[in-house]
């Protein structure tokens, strides 16, 4: 081969025939950005190297073969090595060595245009097309030795040498040790050894015993994650997966059981259940009915308005047990309201707010990481077990969204997935962590966490909704996040529903809740309804183990993501839940407009649904689009929905009974809810404060009871009032202690209090109590008395107000 010497590699003379050695090679796809850890398995051994600036790396099996070649690792984007970057730097047959003695040969059509033509490499170690020559050679000091006979001639025989020193195969003597060893070394060897683990057990072959606990490694799975283990998993057909990292490139149907920390990499998904968990969720969900909800409103509204030039989108809301607070995250889009990754110039961020009255929210806190152009698709969870708020979100650099992204993990070409959390109820946040390479399938061109509340099980595990886009198809799944004993996290990607073209059978957004029996319910947005129209619908899938899902029901909505929450009834021993779903239906329940927000409810774990006629917002034409809903654990729920042209977030706090006009959708388990005067009678009427339960009226500061729908006051108000002008009557519903500083004559007291304290503030301005027979008897003061700088306590009776001394 002609050699063209060119002094292009830092003074080293190289050629198109042989290149200067590389420090490491990779026969799998590598992200050509920043520091990478590469494991190379060649005929000279297995090595793991963390790249440093300027390190020469040979890439032989990139997803796009155009990217194959010699590269220099860099802190940011890698660059091609100067001796493998030009039109005359390589030809078909060019050799590349490693510093460890391996050698590869270029396979490409001449002339080779690096960066434009696909390039392939094949190993020539040790300068032979038969790369396993040494592995199948019997080496001797002499220059020649005869080869061994075929496998059929070698079976169950021992190796010997003739008088010339050449190998021959010998039959072992029957009954000899060699004979026994050959039997034990055969495929059936374990069947010749029997074992009885305890005296009471039966004696059986070890082959039977070992088959009781088969693992994927018995079928050839590679625990290092370097080799493809897909065929081994399929051959195993569902069994134990020992701790380790496994590369799987397709979605598997069987259910497997992890024994320790298992990490699945590659483009596929594996249905993994912890071995100790068996087939069911062992822990029931957090009982949201125990969460206090703060004030109850029959209806209450507020608006969070976006700044000029900004748009509020994709709200996600959760309720916590911390000071009756709710937590809200949403995306703020700047410049345009396009979905993330659809505009090259758009910027966006994630904001977080809190509320303790479910109507007014705190000032926003930006929680997305600096340095990323676009951040969106926020999802949020409140972890009762750890007192932690989790937020997952997605970022993009330029136009890399759905329809524009690329496979692999390059942040300049595809979405990036992030997680951050707060252990201080939102006042401080952890540094966001990029988990893209851990959770994203290699072959997905886009993958993101849909905006929704995150399911937190009674175990403290998170089921984070996750969608990935491959070959024009949406795949709906989830990421199971588990916090290990050392505080680190493990992530397991699971497939729920494999979509179809044009968005059918799943359109990207979803939500998961854990029901009262420990099972999981997933709501998945679809582009099409049951009639095949593009109006949209929400589909519901059920799982009892978190990995196997079955279709259960659906409801027709607009082509939009819905909100879902539930009231758990576990405190009463009832494993059922009331599930609430909110979604826009169009202003006449039949078109595509994203308005007329409606609610559905299910009391049979999502098998059937009742749609309520009442509109969530009084005006059906209010644009609501994406919505999120949270139960407040006090007979009320809170909805946050996108506003008109995404210029606001609409907030609605409603009493369930007042909304549905039914009593079976509210629960109270011994808490003391708070009501206002304006809501009190309505709440009682619809049993949002259930029969015989206690509640506090925040306006009157009284303790009350709902008895058969009627208000029964159990304590008098502690409110005091200064009266500075002359009056003839007092209202005991306004206050029960009155400080009177003007000369006046009192004739009556109205209201429902049982006693009232009247204080004369100055002897010079006396208060005269007088009985007036023209006043209604129940409100009449039944004493004639003058107070000059003194006080009197009056008690209500059905015949009027009497002083406690009984003396006029």
TrEMBL record:
InterPro entries: Sialidase, Sialidase_fam, Sialidase_sf. One of its GO terms (biological process) is ganglioside catabolic process. CDD domains: Sialidase_non-viral. GO terms for cellular component: cytoplasm; membrane. Belongs to the glycosyl hydrolase 33 family. Gene3D superfamilies: 2.120.10.10. It is an enzyme of class 3 (hydrolase). One of its GO terms (molecular function) is exo-alpha-sialidase activity. Pfam families: BNR_2 (PF13088). It catalyses: Hydrolysis of alpha-(2->3)-, alpha-(2->6)-, alpha-(2->8)- glycosidic linkages of terminal sialic acid residues in oligosaccharides, glycoproteins, glycolipids, colominic acid and synthetic substrates. Its EC number is 3.2.1.18. This is exo-alpha-sialidase. Residues 355-636 form the Sialidase domain.
């Amino acid at each position: 081969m002609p050699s063209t010497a060119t002094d292009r590699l830092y003074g080293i003379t190289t050629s198109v025939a042989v290149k200067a050695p590389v420090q490491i090679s990779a026969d799998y796809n590598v992200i050509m950005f920043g520091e990478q850890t590469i494991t190379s398995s060649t005929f000279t051994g297995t090595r793991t190297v963390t790249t440093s600036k300027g390190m020469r790396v040979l890439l032989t099996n990139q997803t796009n073969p155009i990217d194959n070649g010699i590269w220099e690792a860099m802190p940011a984007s890698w660059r091609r090595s100067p001796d493998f970057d030009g039109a005359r730097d390589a030809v078909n047959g060019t050799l590349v060595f490693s510093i460890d003695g391996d050698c590869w040969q270029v396979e490409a059509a001449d002339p080779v245009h690096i960066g434009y033509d696909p390039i392939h490499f094949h190993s020539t170690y040790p300068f032979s097309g038969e790369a396993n020559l040494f592995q199948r050679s019997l080496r001797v000091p002499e220059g020649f030795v005869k080869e061994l006979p075929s496998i059929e001639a070698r079976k169950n025989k021992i190796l010997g040498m003739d008088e010339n020193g050449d190998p021959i195969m010998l039959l072992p003597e029957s009954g000899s040790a060699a004979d026994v060893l050959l039997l034990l070394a055969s495929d059936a060897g374990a069947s010749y050894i029997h074992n009885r683990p305890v005296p009471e057990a039966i004696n059986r072959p070890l082959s039977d015993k070992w088959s009781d606990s088969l693992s994927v490694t018995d079928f050839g799975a590679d625990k290092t994650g370097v080799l493809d283990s897909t065929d081994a998993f399929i051959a195993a057909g569902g069994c134990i997966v020992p701790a380790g990292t496994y590369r799987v490139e397709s979605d598997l149907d069987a259910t497997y059981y992890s024994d320790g920390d298992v990490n699945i990499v590659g483009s596929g998904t594996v249905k993994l259940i912890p071995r100790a968990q068996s087939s069911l969720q062992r822990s029931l969900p957090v009982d949201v009915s125990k969460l206090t909800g703060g004030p109850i409103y029959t209806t209450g509204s507020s608006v969070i308005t976006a700044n000029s030039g900004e748009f509020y989108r994709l709200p996600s809301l959760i309720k916590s047990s911390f000071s009756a607070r709710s937590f809200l995250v949403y995306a703020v889009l700047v410049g345009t309201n396009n979905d993330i990754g659809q505009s090259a110039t758009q910027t966006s961020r994630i904001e977080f707010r809190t509320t303790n009255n479910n109507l007014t929210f705190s000032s926003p806190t930006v929680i997305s990481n600096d340095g990323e152009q676009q951040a969106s698709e926020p999802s949020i969870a409140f972890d009762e077990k750890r007192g932690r708020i989790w937020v997952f979100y997605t970022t993009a650099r330029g136009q890399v969204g759905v329809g524009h992204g690329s496979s692999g993990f390059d942040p300049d070409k595809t979405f990036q997935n992030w997680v951050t959390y707060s252990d201080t109820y939102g006042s401080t946040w952890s540094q966001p962590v990029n988990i893209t390479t851990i959770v994203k399938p290699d072959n997905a061109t886009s993958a993101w966490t849909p905006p929704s509340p995150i399911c937190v099980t009674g175990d403290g595990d998170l089921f984070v909704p996750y969608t990935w886009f491959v070959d024009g198809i949406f795949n709906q799944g989830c990421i199971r996040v588990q916090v290990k004993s050392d505080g680190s996290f493990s992530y397991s990607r699971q497939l729920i529903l494999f979509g179809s073209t044009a968005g059918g059978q799943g359109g990207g957004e979803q939500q998961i809740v854990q029901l009262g029996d420990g099972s999981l319910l997933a709501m998945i947005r679809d582009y099409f309804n049951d009639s095949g129209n593009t109006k949209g619908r929400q589909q519901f899938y059920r799982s009892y183990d978190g990995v196997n899902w079955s279709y259960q029901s659906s409801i027709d909505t607009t082509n939009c993501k819905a909100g879902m929450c539930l009231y758990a009834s576990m405190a009463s021993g009832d494993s059922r839940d009331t599930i609430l779903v909110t979604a826009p239906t169009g202003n006449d329940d039949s078109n595509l407009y994203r308005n007329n927000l409606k609610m559905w409810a299910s009391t049979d774990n999502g098998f059937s649904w009742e749609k309520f006629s009442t509109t969530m917002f009084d005006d059906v034409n209010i644009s609501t689009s994406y919505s999120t809903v949270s139960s407040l654990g006090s007979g009320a729920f809170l909805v946050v929905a996108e506003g008109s042209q995404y210029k606001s977030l609409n907030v609605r706090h409603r009493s369930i009974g007042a909304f549905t006009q039914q009593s079976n959708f509210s629960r109270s388990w011994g808490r003391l809810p708070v009501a206002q005067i304006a809501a009190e009678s309505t709440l009682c009427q619809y049993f949002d404060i259930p029969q015989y339960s206690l509640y506090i009226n925040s306006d009157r500061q009284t303790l009350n009871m709902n008895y058969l729908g009627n208000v029964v006051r159990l304590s008098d108000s502690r409110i005091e009032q200064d009266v500075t002008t002359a009056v003839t009557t007092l209202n005991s519903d306004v206050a029960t202690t009155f400080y009177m500083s003007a000369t006046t004559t009192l004739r009556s007291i109205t209201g429902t209090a049982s006693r009232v304290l009247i204080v004369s503030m100055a002897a010079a301005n006396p208060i005269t109590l007088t009985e007036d027979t023209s006043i209604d008897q129940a409100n009449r003061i039944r004493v004639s008395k003058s107070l000059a700088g003194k006080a009197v306590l009056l008690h209500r009776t059905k015949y009027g107000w009497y002083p406690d001394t009984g003396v006029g």
